[in-house]
Sequence to fold (431 residues):
Amino acid sequence: MWDKDRKIQFWEERYEKANDDQTTVERKANGKQPPQNGKQNTNELLSSTKKYSPLYFASKVCGLCEAFYKKLTGGKSISYLVCHMKKYHKTDIAPIEQENERDETYQASNPQIDKTRTGGNYHIVKRQRSYTQFINDKIEALDLPTKVRKDAVLMCSFVVGSDRKFFGELSPSEQQQFFAECTRFFAEHYGEGNIISAVVHMDETTPHLHLNLIPIAGGRLCAKKLFDRKALTALQTDLYREVGAKWNLQRGKEGSQAKHLSTAEFKAKKIVEQAHGKASDIIAEADHNAERKVKIAQIHADGIVASAEQTATKAQQQAQKYLDGIVQNIEAERSKPTPKRKRQAEEEIALLRTENAALRQSKAIADRDRSDLFEQLQKAERRAKGKEQAFGMVSDMLAAYPDEFDALLNKSRAKKTAPSFKPHGNDRRGK
Fold:
């Protein structure tokens, strides 16, 4: 329990700007920018970000989405006050404390947490004792006539915040003031002494407040009565009227049947979405690599075929030219009446016929090699089509069985070997 002086000091430190000549709402209404205290706000940071960086593109996408939303809402950008509550039993308290406090031993399982920004988290209310010790001491002080049930709700945890745009327009001191006002609301409505902790997380996508309190009313634990559906609706309405309206926030639709995801469900959903996105990227990359390898094989095969055709044509032309020269010489020798020369000419003609047959055989071998190369090319194309069908099956299986995508991807990677093409036989050239 805090004494009176500490209470006064606590609230004076966090609400000293509330007594300014103009409130934050008035400054915005007058078109004045909130004080920055020598620090860059979100818009300044984005404007100074190196072009083509991830943050730069993220800002562009967010800007387009914001412009589209303004068009749908008549030029007005609306931010809503968010307040979610979850009840916890005894066995849940220690893990929640570790998640909220994030000491040096904390191992983040949430991919949305940026460990480099965890040092920017801060407390509005911080106790020297652990959550469990504080709750036990509080229950012991109640001096209940009966023992607390094992399934009793010992802690109610609230997550309070808004969207990125809302916090991007506030300076760090104004953000702290907003969360402090939210904390004061819970202290006034449910007892300052019942607040276990109030910690602001700055290391996730959007700043938000985790406020944990013991559901005590009338000297006993009564979470069911204190936070039933009707009471929660009234809580959200009062929080909007006392805090949200002052900061130009809107309240969500009362009586909405929309179901809010729990923290664990939300994190699991984000992890699944990221896994699907990663799997899609891997499949797309595999498709691209397969297509590229098929094109390379096509070019390689075309080059081999063209080279073989060129070599065969050149060899045939040379042989034909050589043969024509020899035939001319033979004809010239034949014209001479010498029997010896006639016999020599006949022998040379026979030899030339033999060599001509060898050349025809070499050409036939070249034609066969070319046919084999075309057959290899057709096989490569069939294998490529098979891979494309396999990748299509992987995509269908991912849609039906997302939990088994890792095994399928490993099998896909094992099959990513490029086909090789080697000519058959040797290039035989007649002499």
